[in-house]
Amino acid sequence: MKNSRPPDSLSTLLARWQVAPPRDPGFRAGVWARLGGAAPATWGAYARRHAAAVGGILMVAIAVGAFSGREQARSRSAKESARLAAAYVQGLDARSMPMP
Amino acid sequence: MRNVLITLGVAVLACVLAFGVFFALNHNRAMHAAARQGDAMAWLRAEFRLNDTQFAAIKRLHDDYSVACGTHCAAIVAARERAAPPAEVAALEKVCVDSMTTHFRQVAALMNPGEGERYLATVLPRVAGYSHTGAPNVRVTP
Questions:
Q1: In chain B, which among 40-99 make CB contacts under 8 A with chain A?
Q2: Which one in A32, A67, B44, B141 has a CA-CA gap of 20 to 30 Å to B30?
Q3: Is A3 contained in some domain?
Q4: Domain coverage including residue A56
């Protein structure tokens, strides 16, 4: 079988070839998306990507803080109340009056 | 790594905020003010949720009782000073305890029912649990 084109016809064809792609405004974003983690993710994006873990950590932190705050307040009030109750009864107890 | 640290920081912040909110919600400000001032009557008002009428009536009872208390106090101190027999001092103290108990029951009767019971449960054990070897009587022993 004999080749009918001369050997340099490919070079000529490539030299004439022109590409006119349509404009794509999302091209740059598409490249970053395909690169994945190459671009630095914001904390919001990170939190959304790990929503369950971040949500769990926050829930535990809030629960611990709330419980501690409540217990601390109640403990403090109970101590103050006990001290004042003792002072109240002692103030009305003639037996506890010191001798002059 | 940076995002993990930010997450931990946010968690600590949330923990501190929750602590502050729940501390403020459960903190009895009136009790704290009474403790700071050493005001037992303010404690009574805050602890047993007395309204103005109840508080005024109880304050009057206390003022009246303080006269009786002063009489008991003088009798006990006089007996101790002249080194009266222990039986006589004990009898005077019993009068004091009975009078105090009656007074506390009158005060409780002026409170709302549940609060009155709680009041008696708070004060009566302190009357019964009075120790003769405690600090107030330390000067009785020669």
A1: 40-41, 43-44, 47, 62, 65-66, 69-70, 72-73, 75-77, 80-81, 93, 96-97
A2: A67
A3: no
A4: 44-92
